[in-house]
Amino acid sequence: MTASTALSTLPPLEAAQAEQSGRLVSLIRRRIQEAGGWIGFERFMELALYSPGLGYYSAGSTKLGREGDFVTAPELSDLYSRCVARQCLEVLQFAPGGEILEFGAGSGRLAAVVLESLAHWDALPSRYAILEVSADLRARQQARIGALPRELAERVVWLDAWPQAPVRGVMLANEVLDALPCIRFLVTAEAQRVQAIGVGRAADGSLALSARAADAMLCEAVEEIERTLPEPFAAGYRSELCPAVAPWIGAAADHLEQGALLIFDYGLPRSQYYHRDRTEGTLRCYFRQRAHADPLLNVGAQDITAWVDFTRVAEAAVAAGLEVAGFTTQAGFLLGAGIDAALAAAGDAVQRARLSAEARQLLLPGEMGETFKAMALTREVAGPLSGFALQDLRASL
């Protein structure tokens, strides 16, 4: 997702948002009280994003697109989705009659363009399943898919949980892992060197960030990260780690009989993620196209994300029996998957100009081209995948 990085005053909440946010803050205060006055950041993030009916992904508000809080690549340009479709086509050739399972399908635009593209190539999947936790987004997806030709719309089903039957085909996770609740930690010069950042209550009752001694699990996790780095973290260094990644990848691997899990997200290999100069971590919040770093603002009305440690993803995949078949930048993936051909197919000069502008945002390093990465995790897929053939960054993991 992209948004302005200006830290100017955020727009005010609408009345309904303010009411929802107030109710969610009250719920979080109760959970803090029940926990003895403090909860870890991972628990706070889970409540802020996923509390039923109140969390950011559970309450009804426009999240995606120019009128929402952020813009994802599928919302920015159908060129992106056509390239994803091209990669799906290749994988489905290894699993004839296979299906596609998309996690968190946003507005449904990626699903719609992928289906339209595969129909054009006479290579439709047996079904296109969407696992969506947000009732609001599910409704938007159903409206978008409902506008497709009947032959395409009838192939789409919505799931509330992982499918019971093993998946043969493609799993798509576009900006999913960045929204998994993460732990935040702080390194100090004190005897208890590693501290966990969490949320408590200030004297006036408002939510407040504070740190306390980390438990053995977090201390060991931080030390394990440091063993892979040139030098230990300096005092004052803070960052994030996401323990939910390994279980999520493990669950995906358990449900993938044959095919590929394609992951698209913003992130870095571990050596760059925990670079000594990245002293404030990667946490970002998004509200009305503005990015900032305060998760206690507009609780429940703004997105909270952290970049993905793709080394952690790769380690989890290998442990779960998947092959890391590719890792590249978004630009590398799109160029390998044929964005040039999609541009060349533009109908007229006006369309070409529009698509060229969209392609620049998708490809340029200063836009989305290098910040976002693509990773292919496969099982029983022989041969290279074109989206990962042009640029191979697996050695950086």
Strand content: 15-25%
CA distance, first residue to last residue: 23 Å
Class per helix and strand makeup: alpha/beta
The gross shape turns out to be globular
CATH architecture: 3-Layer(aba) Sandwich
Count of strand segments: 16
The average pLDDT score comes to: 93
Describe the main β-sheet briefly.
Answer: 8 strands, mixed
Low-confidence stretches: none
Give the CATH topology: Rossmann fold
Helix-strand topology string: HEHHHEHEHHEEEEEHEHEHEEEEHEHHHE
CATH level-1 class: Alpha Beta
What's the alpha carbon Rg, rounded to whole Å? 21 Å
Helix tally equals: 14
| Total of domains | 1
What share of residues is helical?
Answer: 25-40%
Structure description:
The protein has 397 residues and is of the alpha/beta class. It has a single domain (1-397), classed as Rossmann fold (3-Layer(aba) Sandwich), CATH 3.40.50.12710. It contains 14 helices and 16 strands. The protein has helices at 15-34, 41-50, 73-76, 78-94, 109-120, 135-146, 150-153, 216-226, 245-255, 270-273, 310-319, 330-336, 339-344, 349-363, and strands at residues 38-40, 99-103, 128-131, 156-159, 167-174, 183-187, 194-201, 207-213, 238-241, 256-268, 284-287, 290-292, 303-305, 308-309, 323-329, 372-379. A hairpin with a 6-residue loop joins strand 6 and strand 7. Helix 4 (78-94) crosses helix 5 (109-120).
Give a quick precis of the structure.
Helix content is 36%, strand content 22%.
